[in-house]
Amino acid sequence: MREVIHYERREQNLTACRLCPKLCSIREGKYGFCGVRQNRGGTLFATNYGKVSSCALDPIEKKPLYHFYPGSCILSFGSAGCNLRCGFCQNWSIAQGDPPTREVSPAEAVELARLQRERGYPNTGIAYTYNEPLMWYEYVLDTAVLAWEAGLKNVLVTNGYINETPLLELLPYIDAMNIDVKGFTDKYYRESCKGSLEPVLRTVEIARTRCHVELTTLLVTGLNDSEEEISRLVEWVASLDPEIPLHFSRYFPNYNVDLPATPLETLQKAREIALSRLAYVYIGNAPQLDAGDTICPRCGETLIVRMGYTTRAAGLERKKCRACGREIRLAGEVRES
């Protein structure tokens, strides 16, 4: 365990967590909403510090990040805990449960990532993912600092539900984020995720000026997939920066939600709406729609071809469209895989 960074001690052994917008007031022996921050004797501890439930060398596109070192791999770690309660959670067994874990120190995690690169794998660094990595905050921060010092990249795959002060403390060591914008109404966040929308929007607004950012929205049948809500989401992204890549992901029944899978027509319409205002729009979990290639926003040339997790540069040269010369937003060169 490790004492957490962002909290306050109160009278009668109460602790007030200040990591995320939940602002949990935690009594002696109890846990916060996330299930991994515990009050012991008036001190708040991260009980998941150094505890790894999942570890894999993943394609960077699996995060999904399509404009950050395309075709590379990244060593991915997950733990336990989450500060939302999405009924459709795809990783509920580790995010909401008590998964088996093994101890991996920050130094060991960085050494594993370094060894992957030494052995010839196209590994860019470390991704903090699978459960909600911001509920692993102290471990992520300690590991990210060491990774940064070792010349490795740090990636967060996150729901973005964090307070501004801890976010700003972490961001200098983060190279890329995929942030889930789960819907675009506070009602959806309250009822389906047990959270709120505004903190997530603030996270995107802050992070996009400090690291590479891509966004993902899982379209859940009948809950957040109306054309009106999608249009509002798209307009907001465009108002920040129309070059931010947006991924629509297909929902399938999982955990506590058994609604029908997202219709393919809904996904196609969402992409059509988004492409009217945004440069790069993708569809995940629906390979039959063939919407994973990077297309030049100006002339329609195919720039990066993706089949599953294989990647090939096609009409791209020095981060520009070979056909029309338009500059394409990419962090890092394409590595064919």
Quickly describe the structure.
The protein has 337 residues and is α/β, with parallel strands linked by helices. It has helices at 92-95, 106-118, 137-149, 164-170, 186-193, 198-207, 227-240, 264-275, and strands spanning 2-3, 7-9, 15-17, 25-26, 37-40, 43-46, 51-52, 54-59, 73-78, 102-103, 123-128, 153-158, 176-180, 212-219, 246-250, 281-284, 294-295, 302-307, 310-313, 316-317, 320-321.
Q: What is the topological layout?
A:
Blueprint: E1 2-3, E2 7-9, E3 15-17, E4 25-26, E5 37-40, E6 43-46, E7 51-52, E8 54-59, E9 73-78, H1 92-95, E10 102-103, H2 106-118, E11 123-128, H3 137-149, E12 153-158, H4 164-170, E13 176-180, H5 186-193, H6 198-207, E14 212-219, H7 227-240, E15 246-250, H8 264-275, E16 281-284, E17 294-295, E18 302-307, E19 310-313, E20 316-317, E21 320-321
Parallel strand pairs: 9-11, 11-12, 12-13, 13-14, 14-15, 15-16
Antiparallel strand pairs: 1-6, 2-3, 3-4, 5-6, 7-10, 8-9, 17-18, 18-19, 20-21
Helix pairs in contact: 2-3, 7-8
Give an account of the 3D structure.
With 337 residues, this protein is α/β, with parallel strands linked by helices. The protein folds into 2 domains: 2-46, no CATH class; 51-282, Alpha-Beta Barrel (TIM Barrel), CATH 3.20.20. It contains 8 helices and 21 strands. It has an 8-stranded mixed beta sheet. Strands 1-6-5 form a 3-stranded antiparallel beta sheet, with no helix packed on it. Strands 2-3-4 form a 3-stranded antiparallel beta sheet, with no helix packed on it. Strand 17 and strand 18 (302-307) form a beta hairpin. Helix 2 crosses helix 3 and helix 7 (227-240) runs parallel beside helix 8 (264-275). It is globular, with a radius of gyration of 20 Å. The model has no long low-confidence stretch (mean pLDDT 97).
